[in-house]
Amino acid sequence: MAGEPQADCLFCKIVAGEVPATIVHETETIVAFRDINPQAPTHVLVIPKVHYPDAATLAAAEPQVIADILREARTVAAGDDIEETGYRVVFNTGAGAGQTVFHAHLHVLGGRGLQWPPG
């Protein structure tokens, strides 16, 4: 059921503390942790504690949680000293867009020049 933890979801397991992660920030609604395959010096995933398969589904069901994710992305950027130099936030929604874990999550990338288009 949407919103409920999924037994087979890696990110739900991280939220529950069943799988280790390098957590850099946490609130009542989100957990932020370092990506295990970083694409930039700062590459942090900001995830909701509730399970929705992608950003679009989460936004439709719980718009305040999407707002929390975006707000806390800024906190992550500030914590890694990239807020002033710039950073990128990315939601991949669907396999065709590169989403590999089907639990909504935001990538915060920075610490180097980021080209556009991203590729």
UniProtKB/TrEMBL annotation:
InterPro entries: Histidine_triad_HIT, HIT-like, HIT-like_sf. Coiled coil: none annotated. It holds the Pfam family HIT. A motif (Histidine triad motif) lies at residues 103-107. Residues 10-119 form the HIT domain. SUPFAM superfamilies: HIT-like. This is Histidine triad nucleotide-binding protein. It comes from Streptomyces ramulosus.
